[in-house]
Amino acid sequence: MENNNDTQDDPAEKSKPDEEPFDLDELLPTIGEFGRYQKLLLWFVCLPACIPCGFGAFNQLFMTDTPGDYWCQIPALQNFSLEEMKLHGIPLIEHDGTEQFSKCTRYAVDWKEILADSPDLSDVVPNSSWPLESCRDGWTYNTSEVTSSIVIDFNLVCEYDIYPTLGLVALNTGGPVGVYLFGMLNDRVGRRTSYFSCLATLLLGSFITAASTDFGMWAFSRVIVGLTIPAVYQIPFIIALELVGPNYRSFVTVMTCTFYTFGLMMLAGVTYLVRDWIHLTLYTSVPFLFYFLYLFVMPESPRWLLMKGRLEEALQILEKMAIVNGKQLPSSFRNKLQERVLAEKNRTVKREEVSIGAFDLCRTPNMRLKTFLITLNWFVNETVYLGLSYYGPSMGENQYLSFFLSSLVEIPSYIVCWIIMDRYGRRWPMCMLMIMGGISCVATVLLPENAVSETLVLYLVSKSMLSASFLIIYPFAGELYPTQVRGVGIGTSSYIGGLGLIVIPFITYLGKDNLILPLVIMGCVSVAGGFTGLRLPETLHHRLPQTLEEGEEFGKDWSFDDCFRCIPVVKSPVGSYENLSHDPSDTALELNTAIPLNGAGPSNERTPLEIARFRRQSMKRLVRQASTMDTQKTAGGAMQLTYWF
Q: Percent of the chain at pLDDT above 70?
C-alpha cells in the first residue's frame, strides 16, 4: 500500500524523465567541469592528438617544390657539360626584358648528324631558324636549392606544372567524404575507434605517398590522406568538448586551434631540416605511430556511451573522473541515470520525430536570406584562410620562415578574437576583420615588385585577421541557426563552404606568373564577403531562436543603422533567459527574474523541485552569451563531425 501511494503521489513528476533525456552537463558541476582529470586528458591526449591534421594537410606544399631553373634534356648531348648543352641545344627567349634559356623547348635537330660533322661542337653555332620542340626526354634541374621533390622525380614542369595543384585538389576532395564516413563511424562505434581508424588511414595514405613511383599513385595517396582531414583533428576535439562543462568549451576550442597552429609551426621546422620529399613524408607521419599508445589512456566519450545505453561503461568513466578530480559521484546517481537511459530508449522508439532537412532552412524569406549569408561567409572565410595558408611558402625570401610566420600570427588572433567577441559581438568583429584583412591583401598591388618584405608584412596582417574571422564564423553560425535545425544548418554551411577548398588551389596556381594576383583575388573576395555579413543580425545580448518559426522572426527588425553599431545593444525582453548567474559553489544556477508557472504570477510559491526543473529547462533553451563554441549534435546530445578546420 505504501508503495502504491508513493507511485501515485505525483504522476506529473514521474513522467518528467520520459520527456527529457539525461544531460551530462547537469552532473559535471558535481564531479568537476574542468578538474584534474579533464586537464590531464586535454593537455596530454586530446590537444597533441590534433597535431597530425596540420602535418598531413600542409606537408604536401613542400613535397611539390619547383626548382628555379630547369631545361630540356638532350640525350645526344649528355656527354657534354650542362653549360655546353644549354649553349648549343636550348634556344634563348626573352623574359622580363632579359634573355634566358628556354625551360620548355629545345632545338629539334638531328644531333647525330651534327656530331658526326663536329664531334666537339666547336664549329656549331645555333641558328634561330632551327625548328623547336617540347622536352620529350624530360628535364635537367638545377638542384642547388631544391634538391628533391615530386616535381623533379615525376617531371611536373612546363605543360605538367598544373599537376601539383591537382594534387592539392585531390587532398581537399577527400575531406568532405572523410567527414561523412568517419562521422558515421564516430556515431556508430564510438570516438576512440573512430579516431584510431582515422589515424591509421592517415598513416596508410602517408606510407603510400612515400612509396609512390608516379604522379597517379601519389595523387591517389593524397586522396586517402585527405579523407582524414579535418576528421583526425575534430574527433579528439569532440572528445574534449564532451568531457568538459559548457563554461570551458570556449577555452577548449581556442586551445585546440592553438595546438593545431603549434603543429604547423613545428612542420615549418621539420621541412627546413628535411629536404628530401620521401624522407619528409616519413618524418611527418611515422612518429604518429606512437599515438596508438593512447589506446591505453584515451577514454570513450561518456556522452556517447549514455546515448548508446552502455550504462556500466559510462559510470566507470564518470566514477574515475570524480575520483581524479577529488569529487564524489552521488550515490543516487546510478539509479537516476538508469531510469533516464531506459526512458530515453523508450521515448526514442515510441516517438516519431519530424525530419528536418536543409531545404527547410530556405522555406521562409528571412531564414533563407540568413542561410545564404551564413553559407556565403563560411565559404569566403574557409576559402581565403586556406588559400592564404597554402600561399605562405610563396611569400618572402625564405619559404620555411614565411610558412612559420604565417602560422605564428594565428595565435594572437585567436586570443584577441576570444576577448572581443564578448564585448563587440560576433557580426562586427567578423566583418571588420574580413574587410581589413582583404584590404591588406589588395594593398600589395600598390607595392613595387622588389618590396618583398613589405609584401610579406601585409600578407601576415591579412592572414592574422582572416584566422580570427574564420574562428568567429563557427559559433556565430551556431547562434544564428535555431536550435531545432542547428546541426543541419552548420553541416550544410560547412560542406558548401568546404567546396572552396577545391577551387582555391587554382587561384594560388595563378601566382606562378604573377605573385600578387592571388592575393588581390582573395582580398577582393574577403572584402565582398565582409560587407555582405553586415546584413546578418547580431546575436550577443539576444535571446536566440529555438524553432524555425522563431528563427524567421529573429533579425527581421534589422536596419541599415545596425551596420554602424559596433557595440551591440543589450536587449532583455520579457521572458528572456539570459540573466543567469552562477552561485559560488558552481553547483546551482539562479534566475534573476521571477519564474512563472502555468500562467501564475510571480507571487506563487514553488517547490524546490519545480524551481530546479524550470532552471534546468531554461538553461537548455539558453545559448550563453559567453563565446561557447560547440559542434553540431544529435538529438541525444552527442556531438558530431563538421567539415571545419
A: 81
The pTM assigned to this predicted structure is 0.81
Which residues, listed in sequence order, are joined to residue 581 by a DSSP beta bridge? 590
- Cell numbers given for 568: 551591440
Cα gap 479→627, rounded to integer Å: 10
**How many Cα atoms within 13 Å fall on the side-chain side of residue 539?**
29
CA-based R_g, the chain, Å: 30
Q: Tell me 522's DSSP state.
A: H
Phi, psi of 318 (to 5 degrees): -65, -35
Nearest to 201 by CA among 226, 166, 179: 226
Q: Which three cell numbers stand for residue 37?
A: 582529470
Decide which of 307 and 471 is more confident: 471
What are the grid coordinates assigned to 212, written together?
609512390
Please return the burial class of 349, using the count of CB atoms within 10 Å of its CB with bins 0-12, 13-18 and 19+.
Answer: exposed
Whole-number Å distance between alpha carbons of 537 and 481: 11
Grid coordinates given for 103: 625551360
Cell of 317: 568513466
Cα angle 73-77-78, degrees, rounded to a multiple of 5: 70
Range of weakest confidence among 75-89, 112-126, 518-532: 112-126
Q: Are 192 and 297 in contact (CB under 8 A)?
A: no
Task: Reduce the DSSP state of residue 184 to 3 states and report it.
Answer: helix
The span from the CA of 205 to the CA of 558, in Å, is 49
Query: 3-state DSSP helix/strand/coil percent for the chain, to nearest 5?
Result: 65, 5, 30
The pair phi, psi for residue 228, each rounded to 5°, is -95, 0
pLDDT, one tens digit per residue, over 541-550 is 777 788 888 8
Neighbour tally for 548: CB within 10 Å: 17
- Map 57-99 to HEC letters: HHCHHHHCCCCCCEEECCHHHCCCCHHHHHHHHCCEEEECCEE
Instruction: Compute the distance between CA of residue 509 and CA of residue 520 in angstroms, rounded to an integer.
Output: 13
**What cell does 41 get?**
586528458
CA distance 342 to 226: 40
Judge whether 616 and 610 are in contact, CB under 8 Å.
no
